[in-house]
Specification:
The chain is α/β, with parallel strands linked by helices. It contains 20 helices and eight strands. Strands 3, 4, 5, 6, 7 and 8 form a six-stranded mixed β-sheet that branches.
């Protein structure tokens, strides 16, 4: 019996030990799960903290790729004068205002180089005002005789602004008839005066007036209600609905042929760039007013030929828009990392190194910008070195072949080092560094493509600069009312940016186009005579500028 009791006790102890072991195993598993959950929560906490730091920096901090304000006069609207004031500039302005021009200085004191003040006002007509003493003052106080003029002396210089003004021009035909025929019972011949121009501006506005409205809205970023108010102060009470009709109808009629011609010219090029930005269009068929639409930007690359800049409205950001617009294009395409551009199958993609740097900069932890142990800082250092080399190469070499050779010599080794660094990165999942590394690895095959030709762009900054006027203007007018208005805006922005890119006066070029009224019946040779890069057009625009100066 005792032996049996002992056996029972041993079995119970063994069972208890087995249960304890099982419990211990369960507890260990639970502890491991808890630790894993804790690690996940810590990682999520770190990611959220990183995201908060990133958004805080974007909202309140300064960007390394821009100054204190990327839209002068907008973000710093109320403290612009205080923030931009420079006592040194003020003192310089005072000296410039009281300093005579070089032509008035004695010959032995003429400077070899004109002052910066004269360079700023180069091309502005100068009106000289001579300050004459009164008749009484010209009587000599000593002998009482009339004084003679002995010379002039410079006193000061002022910059004067002459505000715009409106004028209504009424055309009357002066008619002539034969009285002799009438006296002899013959039906008299009648002739009327004509100027040879039919009014086709879809309203009472002249070509210059429509051009002024387009210039103010699409070049200066003024919404129509402000233009309406401005015209009212000038004495012309014209509603914004009328202004909108002028813009849309005349743009569709006279800009569309040039727009399509520029499009054909772009497709014939071998280097192109693209970008896109959201725009809100209120009355799109079967779409809510809050639905996001897009304005696309397509332009020529840095191939040394005349620049082409084209805007394109689309209801969506689908890559089909880029594929349709660039259908027929064969060459290098510089754009950001958006996968929709992959649908442009005939184009060879270029990676934008500015976007790559931007992702890495965003991945730098708060306060760690100078911590060179941070992988994101290391990556930025590689790319900064590339930008430095690219700037020096562009400054030193003027031929595309020389640029290509210099890039292969100086930039390719840096990229190879960067790729070697990239392979070693194992960032925390879902962190900003993980997003940056993933972004770069997805574009790895395009990183060296720009080395194939000296005409290839290093970054997409040029197209981003070209689309910026639309982004700035959008802050003023906020949205488009209809798809027709959105595409009219695209064509108007195209003409304005084409003029700026080819260095011709925007207002005078818009007026020039409205006066010549391009149409679908014109051949490409005729449309070429209206392009902003045409030397005859440039000469005509310059002539108009000179005439305007002389009139003032």
């Amino acid at each position: 019996m005792a032996q049996n009791a002992k056996d029972i006790q041993m079995r119970e102890l063994k069972d208890l030990l087995s249960e304890l072991r099982e419990t211990n195993k369960l507890l260990r598993n639970a502890l491991e799960e808890t630790q894993k959950e804790k690690a996940v929560l810590q990682r999520e906490r770190d990611n959220f903290k990183e995201q908060v730091d990133y958004l805080t920096k974007k909202l309140f901090g300064s960007s390394s790729e821009k100054g204190a304000c990327d839209i002068p006069g907008q973000m710093n609207l109320f403290n612009e004068a205080e923030s931009e004031m420079d006592p040194a500039v003020e003192a310089s302005d005072v000296r410039a205002a009281t300093k005579p021009p070089e032509s008035e200085l004695p010959e032995n004191k003429v400077k070899k180089r004109r002052s910066s003040n004269e360079e700023r006002f180069k091309g502005i007509p100068v009106k000289k005002v001579f300050l004459e003493p009164s008749e009484e003052e010209r009587i000599c106080s000593k002998c009482g005789k009339q004084m003679d003029q002995i010379g002039t002396e410079f006193v000061r210089r002022e910059l004067k602004i002459i505000p715009a003004k409106t004028i209504v021009i009424e055309y009357y035909s002066v008619n002539y008839g034969c009285k002799n025929c009438k006296e002899h019972g013959i039906t008299p011949a009648i002739i009327k005066g004509k100027d040879g121009k039919a009014h086709m501006m879809y309203g009472m506005a002249s070509a210059s007036t429509v051009a002024w409205v387009v210039y103010q809205k699409y070049c200066n970023g003024m919404p129509l209600y402000r233009i309406e108010q401005d015209l009212g102060r000038l004495g012309a009470k014209i509603s914004r609905a009328t202004l909108a009709n002028w813009v849309i109808k005349n743009t569709e009629a006279f800009f569309a042929p040039m727009y399509e011609y520029f499009h054909r010219k772009l497709l014939a090029r071998n280097f192109a760039m693209a970008d896109e930005t959201p725009v809100q269009v209120l009355h799109e068929p079967e779409r809510r007013a809050q639905t996001k639409s897009y304005m696309w930007l397509f332009r020529s690359g840095e191939d040394g030929d005349h620049p082409i800049v084209i805007y394109k409205y689309s209801e969506t950001r689908a890559g089909d828009t880029a594929a349709d617009f660039l259908n027929g294009f064969q060459g290098y395409l510089m754009c950001d990392g958006y996968s929709g551009y992959n649908k442009v199958s005939a184009a060879k993609r270029l990676a934008c190194w500015a976007h790559i740097r931007r992702y890495l900069i965003d991945a730098i932890p708060k306060g760690k910008q100078l911590d060179y142990t941070q992988p994101s800082v290391q990556g930025v250092m590689y790319i900064n070195r590339l930008f430095e080399k690219e700037d020096k190469i562009r400054q030193k070499h003027k031929t595309f072949d020389a640029i290509k050779e210099a890039r292969l010599t100086h930039e390719k080794p840096i990229i190879e080092g960067f790729l070697s660094w990239l392979e070693k990165q194992t960032p925390v999942r879902s962190s900003r560094l993980d997003k940056a590394v993933t972004y770069i690895r997805n574009r790895k095959e395009h990183l060296m493509t720009y080395l194939e030709d000296g005409r290839c762009s290093f970054s997409n900054n040029l197209s981003e600069n070209s689309i910026r006027p639309f982004v700035v203007g959008r802050k003023g007018w906020l949205f488009c009312d209809t798809p027709a208005g959105a595409q009219a805006s695209a064509m108007a922005y195209t003409m304005a940016e084409m003029a700026k890119a080819n260095k011709v006066n925007v207002y005078h070029y818009l007026t020039f186009l409205f006066e010549h009224q391009p149409n679908d019946q014109m051949t490409d040779e005729e449309l070429e005579q209206l392009a902003p890069w045409n030397e005859n057009v440039k000469a005509e625009i310059q002539r108009r500028i000179e005439c305007q100066k002389n009139q003032e």
